[in-house]
Specification:
The chain is mainly beta. The chain has 2 helices and 33 strands. Strand 26 and strand 27 form a beta hairpin. The chain is rod-shaped.
C-alpha cells in the first residue's frame, strides 16, 4: 500500500513540474491562381481563388518590384479575394506593376504571391486610312506609349465588328474586301501581361473605311458634234463612295492622248473638245477615284469603249433633182455609207456606200426637205472593224432644193 501511494505522489509531482505547451495555429496557404482580370488606363484588378481558413487578404504593389506600398486589406475589411487598384500612387497608362498578395487566418500570414500586371495604354492618335483599292484598305496610326501591340476590330458596322488579329506594327492592310464598300475599324493598343491576358481599354475607330469601286459600267459615246468637235460621253453612276472620275482617251493604236480628271460626286457625263479627236476615231476608258487625306486612290478601269465620228457633211446643188454631198475624211475609214430621211427625226434609210469623200444623190424633188447622214466604216480599232456610233443627236444635214436658185438651202 505504501508503494502504491508513493507512486501516485511521484506521478503527481511530474505533472506539476512539466511546463504547459502552447499549441500554435498553422499558417494559411498562399493564394492560388492569382491573375490580372481587368485593366484600365489608371488601374487594374487582381483576383485569386479563396483560401481555406483565411479570414482576410492583404496586398501591396510596386512599380519596380523593389519598393512596395504599405500593406492594405482588400475590400470588405479584407474579405474579398480580389483587389482593384485605381489611381493610387500615380498609376500610369501602359505601365507594368507588381502586386503582392497574402492570406491571413486571424493569427498567421501566408507567404506572398506576386503577380505582374499592367495598365491599359492610351488610345492611339492620328488614325487614318492611307490607301485603298477595290479589295483592300490600309490604315496607320501613331504608336501608343507602353503598347506591345494592337488589336484590330473589324466589321461592316460597329455592332457587327469582331476582333480579327493582333499586330505589333502601327499600320495594317485588310484584304479580301468587297469593292465600293464601307467598313468599321477600331484599333485597341494592348500590353501583353501573359499569353492569356492583354491590358487594354482605350481605342480609336473609324466608321467609314472604304474600298474603291470595281469597273465603271455603261460607258458610251452620247454625242459628237462634228462641226464644233464637242464630244460627250456618259456612264452609269452607281458608285457609292467616289469623289470623282478619271477619263483617258487613246488613239486607235492605243497611244494615250489626253486625261480628264472629273471632280465631284455623282458625275455621269463629260463633255470635251480636243484637237486629238477631230474627225479621228478614238478609244477611251474610265475609273472612279476616292480621295483619302488629299491623295486619290483609283478604282478598277472600265472596259474600253470605242468612238468613230460621223462625217462632217456639206451639200451643193447639182440640179433641181440632185445634190452633191461632201465630207471631211474620217481617219482610218475604209468606206462611207450615206443615209437619207424625209423628215426631221424620221427614219434614215441607206442611199449608197462609197470609198470616196463625196457622193451625188439623185432623184430628189424640189421644195422638199431631205436629211442626209454619212457614217464611216471599216475603222480598225481594238481588234475589230468598227463604224460610226449611233448618237443621241445625229450629225445630219437638212437640204432643201429651190428650182430657181443655184444654191440649196442647208441647215
Amino acid at each position: 500500500m505504501k508503494k502504491y501511494v508513493a507512486l501516485l505522489f511521484a506521478v503527481a509531482m511530474m505533472i506539476f513540474v512539466v511546463p504547459t505547451m502552447e499549441v500554435k495555429a498553422a499558417a494559411p496557404a498562399a493564394p492560388k491562381d492569382a491573375v490580372q482580370t481587368v485593366s484600365i488606363e489608371t488601374g487594374f484588378r487582381v483576383q485569386w481563388s479563396p483560401v481555406a481558413g483565411a479570414t482576410q487578404y492583404f496586398y501591396s504593389f510596386s512599380a519596380d518590384d523593389k519598393t512596395y506600398t504599405a500593406e492594405s486589406p482588400t475590400g470588405s475589411g479584407g474579405k474579398e479575394n480580389f483587389v482593384n487598384v485605381v489611381n493610387a500612387n500615380i498609376i500610369l497608362p501602359g505601365t507594368f506593376y507588381y502586386v503582392r498578395v497574402r492570406s491571413f487566418n486571424g493569427a498567421e500570414y501566408s507567404p506572398y504571391v506576386k503577380v505582374k500586371v499592367a495598365t491599359a495604354p492610351k488610345a492611339p492618335k492620328n488614325m487614318k486610312q492611307t490607301a485603298a483599292d477595290s479589295k483592300s484598305v490600309t490604315l496607320s496610326w501613331d504608336a501608343s506609349v507602353g503598347a506591345s501591340g494592337y488589336l484590330i476590330r473589324f466589321g461592316t458596322t460597329q455592332a457587327k465588328a469582331k476582333d480579327i488579329q493582333r499586330i505589333t506594327t502601327t499600320s495594317c492592310k485588310l484584304t479580301g474586301l468587297e469593292p465600293d464598300s464601307k467598313y468599321y475599324v477600331a484599333i485597341y493598343p494592348i500590353k501583353k501581361v501573359t499569353n492569356d491576358f492583354y491590358a487594354s481599354q482605350n481605342f480609336v475607330d473609324n466608321p467609314k473605311v472604304v474600298t474603291t469601286a470595281g469597273p465603271v459600267s455603261g460607258l458610251k459615246l452620247y454625242d459628237w458634234d462634228v462641226k464644233s468637235n464637242v464630244v460627250m460621253v456618259q456612264w452609269d453612276n452607281s458608285v457609292k463612295y467616289e469623289n470623282g472620275y478619271q477619263l483617258v482617251l487613246y488613239n486607235a493604236a492605243g497611244k494615250k492622248l489626253k486625261t480628264y480628271n472629273i471632280s465631284g460626286r455623282r458625275s455621269s457625263m463629260k463633255a470635251f473638245s480636243t484637237k486629238y479627236v477631230k474627225n479621228t476615231p478614238f478609244q477611251y476608258r474610265i475609273r472612279s477615284y476616292t480621295t483619302l487625306n488629299g491623295t486619290k486612290f483609283y478604282g478598277e478601269w472600265s472596259a474600253y469603249s470605242y468612238a468613230v465620228p460621223q462625217a462632217n457633211v456639206t451639200a451643193v446643188k447639182v440640179s433641181n433633182t440632185s445634190v452633191k454631198l461632201k465630207w471631211s475624211k474620217v481617219a482610218g475609214a475604209g468606206s462611207y455609207t450615206i443615209y437619207k430621211a424625209t423628215k426631221d427625226g424620221g427614219k434614215f434609210t441607206k442611199v449608197a456606200s462609197t470609198k470616196k469623200t463625196a457622193y451625188t444623190v439623185k432623184s430628189l424633188k424640189s421644195y422638199r426637205d431631205y436629211y442626209f447622214l454619212v457614217k464611216a466604216n471599216k475603222v480598225e480599232m481594238g481588234g475589230k472593224s468598227r463604224k460610226s456610233n449611233t448618237l443621241s443627236t445625229p450629225n445630219d444635214i437638212n437640204v432643201y432644193i429651190y428650182k430657181y436658185q443655184d444654191e440649196v438651202c442647208v441647215d
